Amino acid sequence: MKRQLSKIILGTELLAALLVFGAVFIWAPVCKGLLTLANGNMAHMKCFYTGQASIVLALILLIAAIIAYFSKTDHNKVQWVIIAIGIILIANTFESMIGIGICKNTAMACNATAVWLRVSGVLALASGLADIFANNNKNDKSAL
Fold it and tell me: What is the distance between the alpha carbons of residues 41 and 32, in angstroms, rounded to a whole number?
């Protein structure tokens, strides 16, 4: 039963990574437009770099979930990595010290991408915490 619960939780982590890939590449792609800078050079908008960073985070999330799935030992350490990735995915959509942010214009397509990235981050965060709590309960029962 607990092994099946762990498989379901790891499946949701894989789903979170696939949602990021799908959002960035398929159903809510980030802006591909360029901005003209004051010196005449062209540069990508913030949402492009947010999408690129999110792809890297989703790839790490995918690899961590696969490692946790095939791990024979307690994989709480990997789950902490997955929780951190979920937090960074959410923070990446906000303009802050650790996040890149998206365009301020709400009519831009990158706002839809940001919603999908936040949902994926919450899903990774929640499933990581659920797996840690499920493993802690298993360890507590074995101590009795």
Answer: 16
